[in-house]
Design brief:
Structural class: alpha/beta
Order of helices and strands: HHEEHEEEEHEEHEHEHEEHEH
CATH class of the largest domain: Alpha Beta
Largest sheet: 6 strands, mixed
Number of helices: 9
Strand order of the largest sheet: 8-7-4-9-10-13
Helix content: 25-40%
CATH architecture of the largest domain: 3-Layer(aba) Sandwich
Distance between the termini: 33 Å
Shape: elongated
Number of strands: 13
Length: 295
């Protein structure tokens, strides 16, 4: 499986559904469900009876053997809705090698959606475009998963990130608590993405951010280039990479640490993903985060 999880090989597979299946196969299943102790079908453990417990949960066979009252507990699997959030601004078209950041976001989202569907979670989608937010309600069935794959394939990044004036649409979405997974390069001009994240957390949602950067923009290693254009504003600048690389890398390091701290302070999970990294690592991080939702 390790070779199949190489991003370049994954991107060569045109069908999102096939690549997602190949990514998820072999991963540990069942971790992304929250286990709640209570009455159910699958036995979990015994505990001593306490005043107020439902007498129907008493195990009379244990009482006959021990002359003590025990409650028989089971595990109930509780699933929550998962919604993929995709940054569709022009900067996501930045390319390093054979693929762009939006390519990586597509395959990452498809793999996470496939995994969620496998575990029985309801799945939905938000696409953040300059003109507004495309929304696909969360549902749990394979046909709906196919709709998500289709919509991911249709994303064409352009313009700037959605402005806060459109965030009011989020309040008209699901009233239930959701796990929201944002895939973005965090390119913003007026902290609009942080405003979005504050809005989402204020609605009581659990939020994860996968921060997507390419290797060349992380290290300022654009071989043969001296003129750089901002994909969103159209502005260009000429620089000598060799002269500014060291300072650039230090500023990038400081920026990433500040970003990570600000998101963690908001109670938001953050992980930097460089687009030449295997997708399965993002899945493992996702599963680790889901275990924190266990009650």
């Amino acid at each position: 499986m390790s070779s199949l999880l190489d991003p370049k090989i994954m991107m060569a597979i045109k069908e999102l559904s096939l690549s997602a299946k190949m990514t998820v196969d072999g991963m540990m299943s069942g971790i992304n469900k929250s286990a709640v102790k209570g009455p159910g079908m699958e036995f979990s453990q015994y505990r001593s009876y306490q005043p107020g417990d439902d007498l129907r949960s008493l195990d009379w066979k244990m009482f006959a053997r021990s002359d003590r009252y025990y409650i028989r507990e089971s595990e109930i699997e509780t699933n929550i809705s998962i919604r993929m959030l995709i940054d569709a601004s022009a900067s996501m078209e930045h390319q390093d090698g054979e693929f762009t950041k939006i390519d990586y976001a597509r395959y990452l989202a498809a793999s996470l959606a496939y995994l969620g569907n496998l575990q029985g979670d309801a799945l939905g989608l938000y696409v953040f475009e300059e003109k507004g937010i495309y929304s696909l309600a969360a549902k749990q069935d394979f046909q709906h998963l196919s709709r998500i794959f289709y919509q991911l394939e249709q994303i064409k990044p352009q313009g700037k990130f959605t402005t806060p004036v459109h965030y009011k649409e989020l309040y008209a979405g699901s009233k239930n608590r959701e796990l929201l997974i944002l895939m973005t390069d965090l390119y913003q001009t007026n902290a609009e993405i942080f405003t979005l994240l504050d809005t989402l957390t204020s609605l009581g949602h659990e939020v994860l951010v996968f921060h997507l950067l390419s290797r060349n923009e992380l290290e300022l290693d654009y071989k043969g280039y001296s003129t750089f254009e901002d994909l969103e504003s159209g502005k260009s600048i000429q620089i000598d990479q060799s002269k500014v690389r060291q300072e650039y890398q230090q500023q990038m390091k400081d920026y990433l640490e500040k970003t990570r701290t600000e998101l963690l302070d908001r109670g938001i999970y953050y992980r930097l993903m460089v687009t030449d990294e295997p997708l399965d690592q993002a899945l493992r991080d996702f599963l680790k985060q889901r275990t924190k939702l266990r009650v």
